[in-house]
Amino acid sequence: MRRVLASAVLALGLVACGDTSVPGELTQEQLDFVWVGASGPSGPVPPSSAQALFDQNVAPILNATCAGSGCHSAPGSSPIRFLPAAVQDLYASVLQYSDKLVAGDFDKAGAQVLSRVAGGHYTASYTPAEVALIQEWLDAEVLARVDLPGVPSVTRRMMSEMSGCMSRDDWNTDGVALAWALKETDEGRCQQCHVNGQGWLASQDSDRVFNVLSGPSINPATGGLMMEMYIAADLSDPAAPKLLVNRGLLERAASGNAQHPAFEVDGDAMTRLQRFYFQTVLRRSTFQCDPPRFEP
Questions:
Q1: Which residues are within 8 A (CB) of 35 and not within 5 positions of it... i.e. 6 or more apart?
Q2: Of the four, 18, 95, 186, 235, which is 20 to 30 A from 224 by CA?
Q3: Mind giving me the DSSP string for 24-59?
Q4: What gap in Å lies between CA 86 and CA 83, rounded to an integer?
Q5: Is 191 helix (H, G, I), strand (E, B) or coil?
Q6: In the predicted model, what is the mean pLDDT of residues 265-278?
């Protein structure tokens, strides 16, 4: 820890002298200097009286629909492994991942547990009757929570705080947007397909990309924040939630197994993103953040 803080102080000294970049590859100490914890009230989203409806009608649907490929079952952390070994633990797991499964507020219009499958999610599908049962449970959750105090998810709270710690100057100086826009795949540059998003935003307009990633914009491909394309939450340790460079998403795309052109994850673009992430965490640790750019 002392060595990590020493690296942070050294980097802060560079900032004070007007050099906001960290030249070359980051050291292992800098790579290990990560965002941990969320500001504001802590604790999981509380259960509600609608749990019985979930256990009876929805849990069997999710287990039958999502467990087949093993994508969402333990072990591992990416994609989210929300299917526990014991079905009685599924409700608690859904609440833990509420921002990624039910849009954080259980609104059936935006709940990813419906929209992802309806939009075509690998081989997963629901029958009309199953959709009706899931919607019935979501409506019951909304009604049950009217009198409960709002508890923003840990992911949303961390990302809200990070939005105020992200520096436009660092982003532009590090050239993160340009590097990813021009990154080569075996079918051309990233910006050819992703200039307007499509699961990943890649544009040479650095200010535009910064505004989208640091704001409350929602990614229509996932239902999550656009920031999650570059920075994602790791909730594997509930006592120490983290925000990390979203390497898992990049590695899945780079493999070429998801109908995506293959590419090398590591290289100049990744180094620039890691550098910007380090500088953002450093700003937080040295109390240089602005207020959040959006509410959780």
A1: 158, 162, 242, 243, 244, 277, 280, 281, 284
A2: 186
A3: SSPPHHHHT--EE--SSS-SPPPP-TTHHHIIIIIH
A4: 8
A5: helix
A6: 95
